[in-house]
Amino acid sequence: MKQANMGKQKPPLEETISSNVDESKNKGFNVDFLADKIITFGELFDNIKLYEYQREVASYIVKDILYNRGSVFTVEIARQAGKTEVLALIIKAMAILLPRLAEVFPNELGHYRRGFKAGIFAPQKELSRTMYGRVLDRLDSEDAKPFLFDPSINTDLKSRNPIKLSNGSLIQGHSLLAKNLVSFTYDFIVIDEAQAIPDDDFVTEHVYPMGSATNASIVLVGVAGDQEGLFSYNIATNQDRESEFEKYHFEYDYKHVQQFNTRYEKFVEKRRDDVKRGVMN
């Protein structure tokens, strides 16, 4: 679900991390600071404001990538509540900013100096194209140019399929049904519609290794369901390993989402009324 538009405005690039390198240097490798700036850049780039629950997801994932912890996250959010939006935002922001940040922090982020590589996987090619399309549409828009062409970023969209930026970043979409799933090396792996994947062995044997050389962070995204498989197994594992300071599973049902989005609440109420009328008829 696309968030409310922030209105046409000239991007306040002076407030973004890309044009505030001096502050970044002065703070040192402060991951909390960097993660906040990266997410804020993503909001400005997409001209949206994330909901509180989306920003929580983004914060944990971005910090994991910056620390290179290689965690496996599970994200279970009601349909049309913004899970695709937040992950597409993360991918774009990291692809644009990490090669630049690698110059500022060569010891901690030097491995991104040649680009940030992200792979989007789904049970079918059409499903992976949903998130992929969100990433491409924005990068290929006129509104993106003031950010990409800013002297402190200075990058450009070089290819659309796969998505390649002139800073070396790469984003590709894959179908898990492909007969020949070509192996790539990724820094970040997203598996969309994970609840529809019954065979966890295939993913762990063929997809996860694409992040082994980089200790990639992995996110499994899906909705609630009764089918056992990759998603449910990882949710159970993540819930068991969580602590007061660590979180790996994010779950927001429609009741949680409608607290932040009144239009979503109206939609849910309408669907309830439709169901009641159907039962009565």
Give a brief outline of the structure.
The chain has 281 residues and is α/β, with parallel strands linked by helices. The chain is 45% helix and 14% strand. An eight-stranded mixed sheet has the order 3-4-5-2-6-7-1-8.
Description of the molecule:
By secondary structure, the protein is α/β, with parallel strands linked by helices. The protein is 45% helix and 14% strand. It is built from eleven helices and eight strands. An eight-stranded mixed beta sheet has the order 3-4-5-2-6-7-1-8. Helix 3 (52-67) runs parallel beside helix 4 (83-104) and helix 4 (83-104) crosses helix 6 (125-139). The longest helix has 22 residues, at 83-104. The radius of gyration is 19 Å and the shape is globular. The two termini are 31 Å apart. The mean pLDDT is 85.
Could you name the key traits of this structure?
8 strands; 8-stranded mixed beta sheet; 281 residues; single chain; 11 helices; alpha/beta
Would you tell me the structural class of the helices and strands?
Answer: alpha/beta
- Uncertain segments: none
Order of helices and strands: HHHEHHEHHEEEEHEHEHH
What spatial form do the alpha-carbon principal axes imply?
A: globular
Q: Output mean pLDDT.
A: 85
* Amino- and carboxy-terminal Cα gap: 31 Å
Number of alpha- plus pi-helical segments: 11
Number of strands: 8
Q: How can the largest sheet be summarized?
A: 8 strands, mixed
Spatial strand sequence of the major β-sheet:
3-4-5-2-6-7-1-8
Instruction: Kindly provide the radius of gyration, computed on alpha-carbon positions and rounded to a whole number of angstroms.
Output: 19 Å
Helix content: 40-55%
- Which range does the strand content fall in? 5-15%
